[in-house]
Amino acid sequence: MWLIGLERGITRFSNLLGIISTILFIGLLFNVFYDVLMRYAFNDVSIGMQELEWHLYAAIFLLGIPYGIQHGGHVRVDLIYENLSIRGKAWIDLFGCVVFLMPFTILVGYYGVGFSYEAFSLGETSGDPGGLPYRWIIKAVIPVAFFSMAISGLGMIIRCINVLRGVSEEGFSHPPIQH
Amino acid sequence: MIGIIMFFVALVLLLLGFPVAFTFGGVALIFGVFAEGFDMFAFMPFRIQSYMENTVMMAVPLFVFMGIVLQKTKLAEQLLEAMGKLFGGVRGGLAISTILVGALLAASTGVVGASVVAMGLISLPVMLKYNYSKSLACGTICASGTLGQIIPPSIILIILGDVLGIPVGDLFHAALFPGMILIACYIVYILILTFLKPELAPAMPQDLDNETRAQQIRSALKAIIPPLALVLIVLGSIFTGIATPTESSALGGMGAIVLALIYRQFSWKMLYDSGLETVKVTAMVFAILMGATAFSMAFSYTGGDAIVEEVLLNLPGEKWGFIILAMIAILILGFFIDFVEIAFIIVPILAPVAEALGINMVWFAILIAMNLQTSFLTPPFGFSLFYLKGVAPSSIRTMDIYKGVMPFILIQILVLVSIMVFPELYGMD
Amino acid sequence: EKVYKLKMAETWATNFPIFGDAPRNMVRIAEEMSGGRLKITIDSANKHKAPLGVFDMVRSGQYDLGHSASYYWKGKVPNTVYFTTMPFGMTAPEQYGWFYYGDGMKLMEKVYQPFGLLSFPGGNTGVQMGGWFRKEINSVEDLQGLKMRIPGFAGEVLAKLGAKPTNIPPGELYTALERNTIDALEWVGPSLDLRMGFHKIAPYYYTGWHEPATELQFLVNERTWKKLPDDLREILRVAMKVSAYDMYIQSYHESGVNWATMKSEYPDIQVKTFPQPVLNAMKKANDELLTEEAAKDPLAKEIIDSQAAYMKTARVWSNISDRAYLESVDRLDQ
Ligand code: NA
Ligand code: NA
After folding, report:
1. Which residues of chain C have pLDDT under 70?
2. By its UniProt entry, which Pfam families does this protein fall under (chain A) (predicted)?
3. Which candidate in B244, B295, B346 is best for mutational testing of the C interface (most C CBs within 10 A)?
4. DSSP 8-state class, residue B207
């Protein structure tokens, strides 16, 4: 089944984003710790390292969102949803993906391309002394993340179709975040 | 008018159960494109960038990580159990401990997402383990996590100070006592409720056979010291100026790793797993913020803010009528407009009227802050409710959370009214 | 007759005092002078959420006009930094002279035109204060390791002298200064600083050196500008000029009133001027930086030289007119 194959490919892609985000997060933890330590103990401040903090933090949450879509990590108001059959849930998810998620993420991703291209063409850097160059890289995370959300959304659509065709029931029971 | 329709459509569509973040985004897209065309979405990257550069929000992943490590190493559980035992036979001891720990956490951050999620991770499993009523547990966590808004330092107080032209220090000072009263009221409520309905919050089982009270206190202290040290690192680093409030959350995260090392619970796998879960929770919080910013963009660019302005400009010009209606208006708007929007768009409309009426602006600011804190808890759009749902086990239903926060919303309104009527009790007149 | 509906984005938050008054005055004047043919709506930062995105949004045509400050675009177009204010640079009247009667406007056009933008002076804050310090600065050594929130070119000057410019989000500035996370910060002047409450936590308020004449800016999208008939362009030009001038006067007025309030309500604030050796060292560092910048880019050199030459002439007159007058009046018997 090529649909199932595609779905597995998309899952691997989303997992990769999750791994990248996790590594960046551990980097952020040490980055902030380092900045505090240097400032307090050695009276040294690096604007570049301070800016790196928000670069990391921004990449973490943006790249984490597609990973979250893949793993059912996004909050639902479940007053009705909880009581539906798997087919019922699949219908709602299919509808939501096609009408809400895909158009929204693709449109934002599309405008994100121009946004980061602008920074690239200007050679935008930080305006502060010692700040980080290549602003376009962090701005480019916006389109990358939103197109990745669309890809994860496509994975969700395939899962819904598989359920509705009776091929598979994968992807409708995610382990909760904890416990 | 489009803004109002959009609001009700979002309300209905949210009920379908598709993820909140993308329902907001999708509704914004449909209405925004219908009214203004695709180009409105050219503003989205700018709005996203404003979150990316908002380093205060960095506290979300960092605090969440601290919470997850504390939970994985069972240190949080030990802390809450020990505190629960210290309260001895008192029913609801765990809930009271949750409020106190939540208040300490709130003292270090003004980011509601950070403290609600961290408290949800730390204390919800423990309360459920001891058979607390689901809704009581959820209500307690949402309410105590939201305390970060009123207990300084807090973002909303800083923004209000800026908008109203009041020195931030004055507002921090004025907010402290109302915050304490709120905490006290929560605790009194838990005590009364569990006295009337003991089954909602069973007392911790006491090992009566072999542990004396003294031993109990000793073992409780032993359990409290490590997490307490962590709290001291976080608060202490702010107090001594070693770190800014945001940075202190990273020190908390590093401290949690050190504790795990000391208690021989550390492994690289634990670090990686905690990091991955942090990413997932953080993504959940920020996805909602991304969807909400698209929603508020569509709301304001299709003229929603003009309608709101019009309503507010027609409030009565007499002190009590003005205050009461202004508070009601903010409470209602808080259902569907972000608190930052309220502070920047609504408050400047109200401020000149308040000033002309000779109203004490510090008092007015505290009333608004208290009111906005409530907006985090009010269904269906209260962000605290979403955040808790995001980290709760699947046995917790949305309705459990809605039911649980109702009494706390009432308490907040009562405290708000008491500040309104008896400002002198709070040192403001 | 055709009505031109234009949209303007400002960098400031809704109802931001003084800074936000300038664009509103401009809009009012333009509307009335054009008999309603120019209708301009203003979106503040709370609506567009991109205070520092005004350059891009006006450039792309999402907005026709913007109200901001040129030095915010330093990271995008380095030469924009010279059109706001420079450490040890011109005072407001001198700088207005340079803009309108010297080469200022021509050079600004040279910098902005390649990006499809026009820039006009947008109101002046006058001399900004040097900032709030927790400890006294008595020597150049006291700057060593001084952690200060001071962005931009002035930050670079201080960094050269061993200070540590530090990024702190505005929301955490108060706590950071109160707890000695940083030792000093600069904000604007009495009217805006008092709102932040810095006087409660820092005893020393230093007089200015780094922003002697902060000029805001009106940005106009070139395509919009070309669309407008000649008379409306002239009306817009006049409205911008008048509202800019008005903001300078308003700033002067507000600063005066607020300074008096501050002195009577908080008599403990110690107002200081940096000692001469410190100022000499800052000036030297500043000149070295300017030389470096001039060596990197011919247009930068042209601007820096033009400003230096203009200031040289104008300052002689400032000294013989304003300064001599103020000093003579100061010496009068009461
Ligand atoms: Na707080
Ligand atoms: Na300044």
Report:
1. 334
2. DctQ
3. B244
4. -
Cis, peptide link before residue B153, omega less than 30° from 0: yes
CB atoms within 10 A of CB A122: 18
CA distance C185 to chain A (A): 15
How confident is the model at residue C11, as a pLDDT?
Answer: 93
Three-state SS letters, B270-285: HHHHHHHHHHHHHHHH
Among residues B54, B163, B46, the alpha carbon closest in space to that of B114 is found at B54
Instruction: Please state the pTM of the whole predicted model.
Output: 0.90
The single-letter code of the amino acid at C41 is T
Biggest CA-to-CA distance, chain A = 64
- Do residues C278 and C184 touch, judged by C-beta distance below 8 A? no
Q: For residue B317, give every residue at least 6 positions away whose Cβ sits within 8 Å of its Cβ, in sequence order, or none.
A: B353, B357
Across the interface, whether the CB atoms of A75 and B121 are under 8 A apart is answered: no
Residues in contact with B209: Cβ distance below 8 Å, sequence separation at least 6, in sequence order: none
CB within 8 Å: B38 and A80: no
Q: Are B46 and A115 in contact (CB under 8 A)?
A: yes
| Interval between CA B72 and ligand 2 midpoint (Å) | 46
What gap in Å lies between CA C73 and CA C152, rounded to an integer? 11
Residue range B384-407: mean pLDDT, rounded: 91
Residue, of B201 and C61, whose pLDDT is higher: C61
pLDDT higher at B227 or B351: B351
Does B43 have pLDDT greater than 60? yes
C-beta atoms surrounding A133 within 10 Å: 12
Q: Which chain C residues are closer than 8 Å to B300 by Cβ? A: 47
Å from CA of B146 to ligand 1 middle: 9
Which of C14, C49, C62 has the CB atom closest to B348's CB atom?
C14
Which residues, other chains included, contact A100 with Cβ-Cβ below 8 Å and sequence gap of 6+?
B18, B22, B23, B25, B26, B27, B29
* Residues forming beta bridges with residue C218, ordered by sequence position: C67, C120
Local confidence band at A179 (pLDDT 50, 70, 90 cut-offs): very low
- The domain total for chain A is 1
CA separation for the pair B78, B220 (Å, rounded): 8
B&C contacts, CB < 8 Å: 90
Q: Which residue has the higher pLDDT, A103 or B288?
A: A103
> Of the bound ligands, which one is closest to the alpha carbon of residue B155?
1
Q: Cβ contact (<8 Å) for A43 and C73? A: no
Instruction: Name the residue among B354, B389, B67, B108 with its Cα closest to residue B248.
Output: B108
DSSP H helical segments within B240-303, as ranges? 245-262, 268-301
Q: Greater confidence, C41 or B340? A: C41
Ligand nearest, relative to CA of residue B176: 1
Question: b/e map of A141-175 (b: 16 or more CB within 10 Å)?
Answer: bbbbbbbbbbbbbbbbbbbbebbeeeebeebeeee
Residue with tokens 């780094």: C210
The mean-pLDDT minimum among A72-86, B38-52, C30-44 falls in A72-86
Residue type, C90: M
Mean pLDDT of chain B: 86
**Distance from C-alpha of C187 to C-alpha of C172, rounded to nearest angstrom:** 13
Q: Which domain holds residue A141?
A: 1-178
Give contacts of C167 with chain A, Cβ < 8 Å.
47, 50-51, 128
Interchain CB distance below 8 Å, B241 and C200: no
pLDDT digits (tens, 9 = 90+) for C155-179: 999 999 999 888 777 777 888 898 8
Contacts A51 to B, Cβ<8 Å: none
Residue B105 makes CB contacts below 8 A (sequence gap 6+) with: B63, B115, B118, B119, B145, B148, B231
- CB pair distance less than 8 Å for A124 and C72: no
Q: Name the more confident of B28 and C14.
A: B28
CA separation for the pair C94, C92 (Å, rounded): 5
